[in-house]
Design goal:
With about 550 residues, this protein is an alpha/beta fold. Among the domains are: about 10-25 and about 35-205, ANL, N-terminal domain (Rossmann fold, 3-Layer(aba) Sandwich), CATH 3.40.50; about 435-545, ANL, C-terminal domain (GMP Synthetase, Chain A, domain 3). Helices cover about 30% and strands about 25% of the residues. It is built from 17 helices and 24 strands. The strands form 5 sheets. The protein has an 8-stranded mixed sheet, sandwiched between helices. It is globular and about 75 Å long. It starts with 12 loop residues before the first helix and ends with a helix. The chain binds adenosine monophosphate (AMP). Adenosine monophosphate binds near residues 184, 230, 322, 325 and 428. Adenosine monophosphate binds near residues 300, 302, 327, 414 and 431.
Length: about 550
């Protein structure tokens, strides 16, 4: 017997419709690419997104066509998203931090027909125009006065002026594709994750929960995490759904610029990767800055170092929660919000759980398995492959790349190695390919990095496994020191002592000028391993000459 409730397809146009009806005057403030801070409202965004939909239809865009955006977080970018998705076209977010060659690959693979672009990216598009045969139109997200010299490109503001806001949205199946985002592709070509309206809608509802992002109509939300990286963790959907004020930082993500917006706009909630928060903390300390309205930040994308959680908590009274996710999980998969038992613990004991990646909300199923597919215990120490299943987890990649990606039970292998504890808190040990295998045992590079990052002289730290004749691999710690600091191997090893098992102690510490970050702000271990390929550990040399 079927239920008798209304059939109301979960399509994302209804999110901005809701914001328009019930939070129409709520502000969206952006640091524009042209420079000034600009203000709009959900009602205006709704109106302008409808005009863009008509503009796209006028350019021949139909349901299922891919329309890309190459843009920073701004109100205009939100308008483009809803304008594309509302008519059943697929919004393909391009990550401008990728190399030109990768960008071209992705655009061609997706067969994008239109690209919305910020002024910032005109040079790269102009240079590569001939390599993008499927792209019929480029829309520059500015007004006529700032168009720059891209022959044949269309002007965003002119299209909005020229088109009517009378446009029917939705009316299609909720499983219709809404968005496309390619994974960073550390091995092989990047692969496309194709979100549906339903998966986006469900991710929005789940992440609005108080134990997840928990944003409300009273919050002012600053998504530092870019809309081109895993959908800004859904904030361009959950913000309007909740009726939160949104503050969009544009292209300026340095400590001073983020701090300025946090203070002038009265931001209460923000989300970003650890490196952004590290830059903000450094800026605050250098300038004796304060955070007068910020209450909560969510940090994810890479493991959050303890020093950041303590810094925000003790110096600025801001609560940090750690989250884990991936492009394939829309992206939020777990968040380290305390349960009742953890909330009853002392502050220091709670911190142990806050540093883990956290527990799954409703609609995310997690399991740990060994290589033979046997399920592993939730004891907080046994490592295994982390697998995930749920209605906003990828079931296949675009165009079938990578083949079958689910196991027999429908779980997706995240490629992460993790533990699960008795509270259901997951902790990432490493990406499977970054785990250091020493004498048949595993060493977590992430754990050592995070402790080393807490050294007062360290700006960034990375740990990789280096070949060793006896142990297969041993850890090597690379440290980028803060400006003007001098460091020694012994002082860093002494700092780690007692905080990690003795046999985890790196065999060497190398001071470097640069620790490279990849296109999504994570430490680029592949590049580091490449740079260090001729490096030989002193312990390996000793062994070789013994
Ligand atoms: P991406 O799809 O680019 O967002 O990358 C997803 C990957 O980032 C995950 O599979 C993890 O390896 C890593 N990651 C995301 N969040 C965290 C976190 N909080 N701690 C450690 N690694 C993380």
């Amino acid at each position: 017997m079927l239920g008798l409730m209304q059939n109301w397809p979960l399509t994302v146009d209804k999110i901005i419709d809701h914001a328009n009806h019930w939070h129409g005057s709520r502000e969206v403030v952006s640091r524009s690419i042209e420079g000034p801070i600009v203000r709009t409202t959900y009602a205006r965004i709704h109106d302008r997104a409808k005009r863009l939909s008509n503009a796209l239809k006028g350019l021949g865009i139909q349901a299922g066509d891919r329309v890309a955006t190459l843009a920073w977080n701004t109100g205009r970018h939100i308008e483009a998203w809803y304008g594309i998705m509302g008519i059943g076209a697929v919004c393909h977010t391009l990550n401008p931090r990728l190399f030109a060659e990768q960008l071209c690959y992705i655009i061609n693979h997706a067969e994008d027909q239109v690209i919305f672009t910020d002024l910032t990216f005109l040079p790269i598009l102009i240079e590569n125009r001939a390599k993008l045969p499927t792209v019929k139109h480029f829309i520059v997200m500015t007004d006529e006065g700032h168009m720059g010299g891209f022959p044949g490109a269309l002007c965003f503001e002119t299209l909005i002026d020229q088109n009517s806001a009378d446009c029917a949205w939705g009316g299609f199946d909720e499983n219709t594709a809404a968005g496309l985002c390619y994974t960073s592709g550390t091995t092989g070509h990047p692969k496309g994750v194709l979100y549906s309206h339903r998966s986006n809608f469900l991710h929005t509802l789940v992440t609005m929960g108080v134990d997840v992002l928990g944003i409300s109509a009273r919050d002012t939300v600053l998504p530092v995490v870019p809309m081109f990286h895993a959908n800004a963790w859904g904030l361009a959907l959950s913000g309007p759904a909740a009726g939160s004020k949104l503050v969009m930082p544009g292209q300026k993500l340095d400590g001073a610029s983020v701090h300025e917006l946090l203070e002038t706009e009265g931001v209460t909630f923000s989300a970003a990767v650890p490196t952004v928060w590290q830059m903000l903390l450094t800026h605050l300390r250098q300038t004796n800055g304060t955070l007068s309205t910020l209450k909560r930040v969510v940090i994810g994308g890479s493991a959050v170092p303890e020093a950041i959680v303590r810094g925000f908590r003790d110096e600025y009274g801001v609560d940090v929660t750690h989250a884990w996710g991936m492009t394939e999980t829309s992206p939020l998969g777990t968040q380290a919000t305390p349960n009742a038992a953890i909330a009853a613990m002392g502050e220091e004991e709670q911190l142990r759980y806050k540093l883990k990646q956290g527990r799954p909300p409703i609609a995310i199923e997690l399991k740990l398995q060994d290589d033979a597919g046997v399920e592993l215990p939730h004891d907080g120490t046994t490592f295994g492959k982390l697998k995930v299943r749920g209605p906003f987890v990828a079931g296949a990649y675009f165009r079938g790349d990578g083949g079958q990606i689910l196991d027999d039970a429908g779980f997706f292998d995240t490629g992460d190695v993790a533990t699960l504890d008795e509270h259901g808190f997951m902790q990432i040990t490493d990406r499977a390919k970054d785990v250091i295998k020493s004498g048949g045992e595993w060493i977590s590079s992430i754990e050592i990095e995070n402790i080393a990052m807490g050294h007062p002289k360290a700006e960034l730290a990375a740990v990789i496994g280096v070949l060793h004749p006896k142990w297969d691999e041993r850890p090597l710690l690379l440290v980028k020191l803060k400006a003007g600091e001098q460091g020694t191997k012994d002082e860093f090893l002494a700092f780690l002592e007692g905080k990690i098992a003795k046999w985890w102690t790196p065999d060497d510490v190398v001071f470097v000028d640069d620790i490279p970050l990849g296109a999504t702000g994570k430490i680029d271990k592949k590049l580091i391993r490449d740079r260090m390929k001729d490096y030989v550990l002193p312990t390996a040399k000793a062994k070789a000459t013994a």
